[in-house]
Prior knowledge:
Mean pLDDT: 80
Structural class: mainly alpha
Order of helices and strands: HHHHHHH
Pfam families: MFS_1
Oligomer: single chain
Membrane topology: Multi-pass membrane protein
Low-confidence stretches: 26-33
Distance between the termini: 58 Å
Keywords: Membrane, Transmembrane, Transmembrane helix, Transport
Strand content: under 5%
Protein name: Major Facilitator Superfamily protein
Number of helices: 7
Subcellular location: Cell membrane
Amino acid sequence: MSVSVLAALSLLFTMWIRVGQPKQGESTMELNVEPVKRKKGMHWNDFIEPKALPISLVGFLLAVSYSSLAGFMATYTNEIHQSQMGGIFFVAFAIMIVLFRPLVGKVFDKHNEHYVYYPGIVLFTIGMYLLSQANSGTIVLVAGFIMGAGYGALFSCFHALAIVQPPEHRRGIANATFFLLFDFGYGVGSYFMGLIASFTNYRMMYFSQESLRYFQLVCTMVCTIARKQSLQNHNAI
């Protein structure tokens, strides 16, 4: 029932959304929008933005980690005899996301992604480790606060990078590319994290994600180097 009410409210709120349209007589050159060449038929890049793909793959890895929280937190807190902390964990998680995202935006605009990403992955990694070793409700709560701050920084950073790299007329497709891979990571992660837990336990499942963080770090460094090289080549032309 509550889900239906929220869906109805979301639909209602869309009535107040206004999308800016070019004034009569304005051309795409006046709006600083690159003209779009019309192609016959359908092509894969009508749905996927190649420039957004590398950082979207890193977002895929973040979604794999998040899926273990959304899918198995209740079961894990039951396993460690802290069932009352399952819901409170996500409250702490959400509070830190809301508090940190405005700060993340300012830092991202003033400096660059390094000032957002590296602290974010450190916080998320520390929080995941604390969660995997938790034996009390207090540690679960602290892990929720730390991971919420890290997740808020990482998600905002990856999403912004996915959108700003392509040309303006491709940003809608870039946005779709990012969320396509993020949702896919959520689904894949739920399956494989459950598989790990079935062979070991939930504590080991969360601990095993430390290796995923290192892989994510390497992938992001590669994306950053490739992005800098692309910018240098563009400026040299």
